[in-house]
Design brief:
Distance between the termini of chain C: 6 Å
Order of helices and strands of chain C: HHHHHHHHHHHHHHHHH
Structural class of chain B: mainly alpha
Helix content of chain C: 55-70%
Number of strands of chain C: 0
Number of strands of chain B: 0
Distance between the termini of chain B: 39 Å
Shape of chain B: globular
Chains: A alpha+beta (651), B mainly alpha (306), C mainly alpha (375)
Number of helices of chain B: 13
Strand content of chain C: under 5%
Structural class of chain C: mainly alpha
Helix content of chain B: over 70%
Oligomer: heterotrimer
Chain lengths: 651, 306, 375
């Protein structure tokens, strides 16, 4: 009786699991028999594959992440760029700290006539750019505004009814290169550019509207191939020659009167828009198996197809989040390419070992992400930590003293940190700009803090901090130890850096740090936030910077506070009028000389006061198989797929 | 009546006293269990006297290159930051043993009692307890901890060093999420045990519900709890390290066996044995407790001849 | 019994509803939601070039985060299409207001909504289904294999307590729980996976794939798949890729389950009625399988029924180590990326499976021990 029941239950379980197991594989279109038949010529166990003359070239690029979407107007993630570089080929490349046109015939510089500086007259009711608010404003009678002039200084005016004021407006003209077509053969025209612009500007598209409302006045279609881009009157930018470049979207499909018209709101959730975008670049998408891989195929309508591009017939992006697994697949040849988003730093010795065996080749390049130690020079009033309570002998807050921050810099051997934490891959950096950047001020023009613990201790002694009780830790002679918290958002690299910094500060200078690791809440918006609520002692994180030196991270208006909603970037609380002036001038300068001079000045001031100690530029590491050719890692090209059309495999 | 009552009482007490001595004697005859007890004692000794035994300062970053292998100075080699692995292993015993023993013993005990109550009384008591267990099991640990992290981070035990106060918080969290397993195990056992003849007999003799639970239900459902506990010893050590990713684990550079295991991941290919050092410690501790459990159970079983 | 089941069903529904509400509030209130991420991401560019408060508000309306946790949960459960009927169109998402067909219908009507992050714009059900097959293959085979091995091992160890094999099994078990899963996984990969592995380089045997579910191009020479002439994407391809992860997972489950089997079997074998049965001269095999096994199953049932939510939920670390795109990895990824619709759907289904597993456990108790009754 009992046995029967048990057997029935067990039997049911077995049947159920078998059904489940059987259901699984059946869900894939396995096409039983068919592939076997087509593959059969290759099956015979001949070890050497018979050299077929036209064996398709398939490259497997392994990424650590899967893109969430391929829709242009969605978040700007690096992995998305990896794929879009192959589908769209980009509007321009930014290699070696410079810019190169791709989709357009040329950059729109003043020199080549692509852009012009017009002086226009504005009055009440006109919309102009207000540098004070960094926003576009409509002129009203009685308001005071500073208007940018084409030549010379900005003009401070109080607007009056009926009067007109001169202001500069930059207008760029862009022309599409010849022969660009969508993968379905329809030519890419300025209608696609306009459509794309309108979708981006639509309130239903949840992207930042800065480009549409602050930077841009309008775009104007000249003909099928050419359009004019009008900056907002008064808006100037150091990168004006590429700012107006727009990536097209297929108007003939999703636009009004297209084959499948969609509103911007519908596009956001449309499966095709997100997961199978129409390509005009070297490749087109054929399949996206969620969580596993994306398969691209050579696009026969690519405008450079006549040059024999792309070289590959198929490009497969495979997603492998685990670094060890990725390296295993590179070693055995399942992957041809491992991208920079994998955390290769920690595994560099292993990669070098495989390199010696001829299995893979790493490319290590210092990138534009720099890791830094921030000193909280201006803690919020409610903060009770060391940054607020430790005092110099003159009674001032220790963290607000530049000598203190300089002492920390002297006490740290940053090259040793790089060697130990990143296996020597990263590059020590002295300011917020990488040392090989063309706008770097130069070693002789800034203050460089070489490792010199004696100098560090001297500076600390001058602030009243020496080891009076002989316990190895500095104190102020009144029983307070020089001890503060070193906090960071946790990741394996930073876990190492914090520990090395801790050991170095203690051994070299007698400074005690306590390590605090946080999750994502580390960056939470103030007033509750830690870093951006200015409630920390010494913080560590990284800024991702672009081609331009990011001096604006440290200007006074960027100090997070109630007024700007805590949403600003100057978490160290650095405030220096000279620095602000130099930085603003550098960012808005239109001629290269002023720009370089002002950037250099800003860097000089920054390194003297050292509100934040740059540690190193993180390495971008790309690993390829030896048979892969044409893959070049560039320090400023965001993605290594910028020249994907030139990738090739030689067997 | 009274006489019978009295007789039973004396019988029980007499029997109980002698039983303890018998159990002890029987346990001491279980050689493997004794050996296991010695291993545990040695580990506790090492943990307590780590500062005397360890040849180096576990935080001192030596000049030896990262991951250089065993040498006369560093018998197990050094870790990624040039620290002596052997010394770190010894210091790690402190927090790791503390956390895993406290968490496992507490949560198994709590779970055992709740489970016994649930299974014995059945009815609405059982429903309430079991639905609570199910509710707890459905709650996602990760967001829950994230939600409480700022709160938990703020808790410090006055007078204790930072890492000990964190260890106590971690233990609390792991206990709060760890009692459901043994609850369900014991309940399942008790549901069946309470229907067996000896339980019926005890009830017929007028023994109270609580008496039956403590004297009969719990001792007889101990076996799976011991298994759960011994298996859990290793798990908790590894879990502790996982918590540090949420930001309130034990922060570096304090070593634990869990974070030592975690950190060798990048080195697995070249030196997979690095994982053995902490792994072997965890192995020895958990297998020793297993044999102590075996010994105890054998000793408690009056029918078994030893 | 029918009454009991009806009452139990109501209790189960209540648990699922309360749990899902708690989970929703938890996700909503935990620090670092999707909007926080946007705020962080927009720092560091040109001043104000990132998202303004107005932009963030617009994104909140697009995702439905402007509703707050209470209305958010209501909308998640019952859909948002009816909200304008009660005059609360402001609680709908902006896309729903603009295009009524895109309104979510709510979980009660089988609509888990649309993924925010993991696969933007894809229905959550499709996202889950895309991983379900992989997870079921891995988990079902690991569960079946380890049960099939763990029960005999447990019985053997109990019947032959303190025999040499029992010590071997015990040592193996505790080694299995002491070493982390990633270690076993990587050792498997290093020893058997890829053409750098010793089984290929030293022994010259065909090697196994290091990871993934399928090949994307023809197998490399020397691999087991090349030897068998297997084409990418076929079921044989999946089966061969499943060998290593299944082995690791099975070893793991086996280690624990065999211990439970052993200990409860030991317990039962000491009972009087087993002695009686033996004394009656019944054959040992009959004693063990007819009389002892049945009563020894209760702890194992308790443990194994909770494998049901586990089969759906996958094994995160094993999946990650072997790059096996399954549910466990998806869930952790979705949580990390703040993809609440995907995480909610996963947790909701898990919650349902937990209460079902619990019920199934109780039913199985009555099967193995008919004296247990629920009423």
């Amino acid at each position: 009786m009992f046995k029967n029941r048990l057997l029935t239950v067990l039997g049911l379980l077995v049947v159920a699991t078998m059904i489940l197991a059987a259901c699984g594989p059946a869900a894939t279109p396995a096409e039983p028999g068919e592939p076997e038949a087509t593959e059969s010529p290759e099956v015979p166990a001949t070890p050497e594959p018979t050299e077929a003359p036209a064996e398709p070239k398939v490259m497997v690029a392994c990424l650590a992440q899967e893109p969430k979407t391929l829709y242009l107007y969605s978040e700007s993630a690096l992995v998305k760029t990896f794929v879009l570089d192959a589908l769209y080929d980009g509007t321009f490349d930014s290699r070696s700290y410079d810019y190169q046109p791709v989709l357009y015939t040329d950059l729109a510089t003043f020199e080549n006539g692509g852009s012009v500086k017009n002086t226009i007259e504005v009055g009440v009711g006109d919309v102009v750019y207000d540098p004070a608010q960094d926003a576009a404003v409509t002129l009203e009678a009685g308001m005071t505004i500073s208007l940018n002039q084409a030549e010379g200084d900005p003009l401070e005016v109080t607007v009056e009814e009926g009067k007109k004021y001169p202001v500069v407006q930059i207008v760029s003209t862009f022309t599409l290169v010849d022969g660009v077509t969508w993968e379905d053969g329809t030519p890419v025209t300025t209608a696609d550019i306009e459509f794309s612009y309108n979708v981006g500007a639509s309130p239903d598209t949840p992207v930042s509207k800065y480009f549409y409302t602050t930077q841009t006045q309008k775009i104007e279609v000249v003909d099928e191939k050419t359009y004019k881009y009008y900056f907002m009157p008064g808006f100037t930018s150091g990168t004006y020659f590429v700012d107006g470049m727009i990536t097209p979207l297929p108007n003939h499909v999703y636009g009004e009167g297209g084959s499948r018209p969609l509103t911007p709101a519908e596009m956001l959730n449309d499966e095709e828009v997100n997961r199978d975008p129409l390509a005009f670049g070297p490749f087109k998408l054929v399949e996206w198996v969620a969580g596993d891989h994306i398969t691209l195929e050579k696009n026969p309508t690519y405008w450079r197809a006549s040059e024999g591009l792309p070289h590959l017939d198929q490009l497969i992006y495979r997603f492998i989040p685990d670094t060890n697994q990725l390296i295993a697949q590179l070693a055995s040849g399942e992957c041809d390419l491992g991208t920079q988003d994998a955390a290769f730093e920690g595994s560099l010795p292993l990669i070098r070992q495989f390199e010696a065996e001829g299995l893979m080749i790493p490319q290590v390049v210092a990138g534009t992400v720099f890791e830094h130690l921030d000193f909280n020079t201006l803690p919020v009033e409610s903060y009770q930590g060391a940054a607020a309570t430790l005092k110099a002998s003159d009674g001032e807050r220790l963290f607000a003293k530049k000598e203190f921050r300089q002492a920390i810099a002297y006490c740290l051997d940053r090259q040793a940190i790089v060697d130990q934490a990143t296996n020597g891959a990263a590059l020590v950096q002295h300011t917020y700009t990488a040392s090989d950047h063309p706008l770097y001020a130069g070693d002789e023009n800034i203050t460089i803090y070489e490792f010199n613990p004696d100098k560090g201790k001297e500076l600390l002694a001058s602030l009243g901090w020496t080891d009076t009780d002989g316990d190895g830790i500095l104190d102020d002679g009144k029983g307070t130890k020089l001890s503060f918290i070193h906090s960071t958002r946790t990741n394996p690299l930073r876990e190492k850096v914090t520990q090395i910094v801790q050991a170095q500060l203690k051994d070299n200078c007698g400074i005690e740090t306590k390590i605090e690791l946080y999750g994502g809440e580390y960056f939470a918006d103030g007033p509750d936030g830690l870093v951006f609520g200015r409630q920390y002692d010494m913080g560590e994180f990284a800024w991702l910077t672009g081609v331009e030196p990011p001096c604006n991270l440290y200007i006074t208006t960027q100090i997070p506070n109630e007024v700007n909603g805590w949403g600003a970037s100057n978490n160290v609380g650095f405030s220096n009028p000279e620095f602000d002036a130099a930085c603003n001038a550098a960012l808005q300068a239109l001629d290269e000389e002023t720009k370089a001079a002002q950037h250099a000045l800003a860097q000089k001031i920054f390194t003297e006061y050292l509100p934040s100690l740059p540690l190193f530029a993180r390495a971008k590491i790309l690993v390829t198989r030896p048979e892969v050719v044409g893959v070049i890692m560039d320090p400023t090209a965001n993605s290594e797929f910028w020249n994907v059309e030139n990738f090739d495999i030689t067997r | 009546m009274a006489v019978v009552e009295l007789q039973r009482e004396t019988l029980l007490t007499v029997k109980e006293e002698s039983q303890f001595v018998v159990v002890m004697r029987r346990f001491l005859r279980h050689r493997l269990a004794i050996l296991a007890l010695i291993v545990i004692a040695v580990f506790i000794f090492i943990a307590v006297f780590a500062h005397v035994i360890a040849p180096y300062d576990p935080y001192k970053q030596n000049l030896a290159p990262s991951y250089s292998g065993p040498s006369p100075e560093h018998i197990l080699g050094v870790d990624e930051l040039g620290r002596d692995i052997f010394s770190r292993l010894i210091y790690a015993a402190r927090l790791s043993l503390f956390v895993t023993l406290v968490v496992n013993f507490t949560s198994e005990t709590i779970g055992m009692f709740i489970g016994a109550i649930s299974g014995y009384f059945r009815g609405w008591v059982d429903s309430v307890i079991q639905r609570t267990v199910e509710f707890m099991l459905t709650l996602p640990t990760l967001p829950l901890l994230l939600f409480f992290s700022s709160l938990l981070r703020g808790i410090t035990v006055p007078g204790l060093p930072d890492e000990w106060s964190k260890a106590i918080v971690i233990s609390g969290v792991l206990i709060a999420f760890g009692w459901m397993g043994s609850t369900r195990l014991v309940r399942g056992m008790v549901l069946s045990l309470r229907e067996q003849e000896f339980a019926q007999a005890a009830r017929a003799l007028g023994m109270g519900d609580w008496g039956i639970i403590v004297r009969h239900m719990i001792p007889n459902s101990l076996a799976p709890v011991i298994v759960n506990l011994t298996l859990g010893l290793g798990t908790v050590i590894v879990l502790e390290a996982a918590l540090s990713f949420l930001g309130f684990g034990i922060t570096p550079p304090v070593p634990t066996w869990g974070n030592m295991l975690q950190n060798v991941q990048e080195r697995m290919w070249q030196q997979p044995w690095l994982a053995f050092y902490p792994g072997l410690c965890i192995f020895l501790v958990s297998i020793s407790f297993n044999y102590v459990g075996d010994g105890l159970r054998d000793a408690l079983d009056p029918r078994l001849k030893l | 019994m029918t009454n009991y089941l009806i009452r139990r069903f109501f209790q189960m529904s209540l648990v699922v509803i309360v749990a899902s509400m708690a989970i929703y509030f938890l996700l909503y209130l935990a620090p670092g939601g999707p909007l926080d991420e946007l705020r962080v991401a927009s720092r560091g560019g040109r001043p104000n070039q990132g998202f303004t408060e107005a932009d963030i508000q617009r994104i909140a309306e697009y995702l439905g985060l402007h509703r707050g946790p209470f209305w958010g949960y209501i909308a998640w459960l019952t859909g948002e299409d009816w909200l304008d009927d009660i005059g609360r169109a402001d609680l709908q998402t902006s896309t729903c207001r603009a295009v009524p067909q895109t309104c979510s219908l709510g979980v009660l009507r089988g609509d888990f909504g649309v993924s925010w992050q993991v696969a933007r714009g894809q229905p959550v059900s499709e996202v889950l289904l895309s991983r379900l097959r992989n997870t079921l293959i891995l988990m079902v085979s690991a569960t079946v294999i380890s049960l099939a091995v763990a029960i005999p091992i447990g019985i053997y160890s109990a019947v032959h307590q303190y025999s040499r094999l029992d010590y071997v099994f015990t040592t193996f078990t505790f080694f299995g729980t002491a070493m982390p899963v990633f270690w076993f996984g990587l050792m498997m990969i290093i020893l058997f996976g890829g053409n750098q592995s010793p089984i290929y380089k030293v022994l010259g045997l065909p090697y196994l794939p290091t990871g993934n579910v399928t090949l994307v191009r023809p197998p490399l020479p020397g691999s087991l798949e090349a030897l068998l002439g297997i084409s990418p994407g076929s079921w044989q391809d999946i089966a061969i890729h499943a060998i290593l992860p299944t082995t690791v997972l099975s070893l793991l489950y086996m280690a624990g389950w065999s211990r439970f089997m052993r200990s409860s079997m030991l317990e039962v074998l000491r009972q009087d009625y087993i002695r009686v049965a033996r004394a009656k001269g019944l054959r040992e095999r009959v004693v063990i399988y007819k009389h002892a096994l049945r009563n020894a199953l209760i702890p194992l049932i308790t443990i194994v029924v909770f494998q049901i939510p586990g089969i759906f939920g996958g094994a995160t670390i094993t999946e990650t180590v072997f790059n096996w795109p399954g549910m466990g990895f998806l869930y952790v990824y979705a949580l990390g990326a703040n993809d609440y619709p995907v995480a909610m759907a996963f947790l909701f289904i898990s919650a349902i499976l937990v209460v079902i597993a619990s019920l199934l456990g109780d039913i199985l108790y009555t099967v193995v021990d008919p004296r247990i009754r629920f009423s």
